[in-house]
Design the sequence.
């Protein structure tokens, strides 16, 4: 057992994809669930995520298998909710590396083939026939991997869909609660207290607060390593392009959006963001324009891309890069969801966490991701 059996009242802290997915699964199990959030739903990392659905570049590990299960749940969602077609797509992913000694495209393709992950190794001249909208001359001589089973999701649209069901099942959403704290006595969670001092009692608490997770756990004496960087997601104005796949290239990642625009990110542009002493971020115009220019380079016809806006803020990544999911053994009734792969794992993590919380029994697929591995 990992918690008290038969909990009735659950508080989920956070209204990003992990929190809302877990909450709706708990509501489906008949529990009394309250989501508490500091602001509107999807106002954190879920609102500025590239949201690439994939299990690429990983060996056959528990993390790989969990991501594959995550993709499976999205396919189920697409099959049962035709209305998701505008914001949940499986048009594949195309990846290539820089033209230097660090290029791993061939070895990655061989790895993916060996574990049954659908992957095609393409010469630049072959790409157009497989996935349109890509500038073949931008692809390095080593070629590119096309993964037909990959896709993307617009997380705010998904969260809105799930919240509609959550409310219909009697779930409660408390917005603008400020930064809450876990109320725990005698080594057991008793609920949470909002920033305004309002207590919300519960039998179990799920922390799904993204980059705030390590700090909130530290308040109850639980310490996990944190590798959270700053993310920058740039959105263009709508552009006519044949691109449907997600692109992961040496200088920019690109995916379409439901409204005909593109969203872009990269490692180098995130490194140029300045974090100010008060925690706010400054993004230089040159950084944004550089990202727009890099995206134009990899698109067929090198279209001129115009800025619509951008989101900037912390991107949750645990210290060892692996997800942190499940019960916190040191404090009974506290559970956590903290991972970089929020989009890919969003549905499956919510499902498995809800089962654990409701039953008190650990799920074997989460055994590698427990908090106690850092003890």
Sequence:
């Amino acid at each position: 057992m990992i918690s008290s059996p038969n909990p009735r009242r659950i508080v989920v802290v956070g209204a990003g994809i992990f929190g809302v997915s877990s909450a709706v699964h708990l509501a489906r199990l008949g529990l009394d669930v309250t989501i508490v959030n500091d602001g509107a739903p999807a106002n954190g990392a879920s609102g500025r995520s590239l949201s690439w659905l994939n299990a690429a570049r990983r060996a056959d590990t528990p993390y790989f298998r969990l991501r594959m299960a995550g993709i499976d749940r999205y396919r189920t969602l697409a099959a049962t909710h035709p209305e998701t077609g505008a914001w949940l797509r499986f048009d594949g992913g195309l990846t290539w590396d820089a033209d230097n000694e660090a290029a791993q495209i061939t070895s990655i393709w061989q790895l993916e083939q060996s574990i049954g992950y659908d992957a095609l190794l393409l010469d630049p001249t072959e790409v157009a026939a497989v996935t349109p909208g890509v500038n073949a001359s931008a692809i390095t001589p080593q070629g590119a991997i096309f993964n037909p089973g990959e896709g993307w999701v617009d997380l705010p649209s998904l969260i809105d869909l799930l919240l509609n069901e959550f409310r219909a099942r009697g779930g409660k959403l408390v917005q603008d609660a400020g930064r809450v704290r876990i109320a725990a006595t005698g080594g057991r969670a008793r609920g949470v207290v909002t920033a305004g001092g309002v207590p919300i009692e519960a039998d179990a608490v799920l922390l799904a607060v993204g980059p705030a997770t390590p700090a909130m756990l530290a308040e109850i004496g639980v310490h996990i390593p944190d590798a959270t960087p700053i993310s920058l997601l740039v959105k263009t104005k709508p552009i006519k392009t044949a691109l449907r796949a997600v692109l992961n290239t040496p200088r920019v990642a690109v995916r379409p959006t439901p409204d005909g625009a593109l969203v872009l990110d990269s490692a180098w542009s995130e490194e140029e963001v300045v974090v100010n002493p008060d925690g706010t971020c400054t993004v230089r115009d040159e950084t944004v324009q550089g990202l727009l220019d890099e995206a134009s380079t990899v698109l067929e016809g090198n279209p001129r891309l115009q800025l619509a806006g951008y989101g900037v803020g912390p991107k949750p990544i645990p210290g060892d890069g692996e997800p942190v999911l499940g019960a916190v053994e040191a404090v009974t009734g506290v559970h956590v969801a903290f991972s970089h792969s929020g989009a890919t794992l969003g549905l499956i993590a919510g499902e498995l966490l809800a089962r654990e919380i409701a039953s008190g029994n650990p799920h074997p697929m989460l055994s590698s991701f427990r908090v106690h591995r850092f003890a």
Summary: The CA atoms of residues 178 and 189 lie 19 Å apart. The two ends are 19 Å apart (CA to CA).
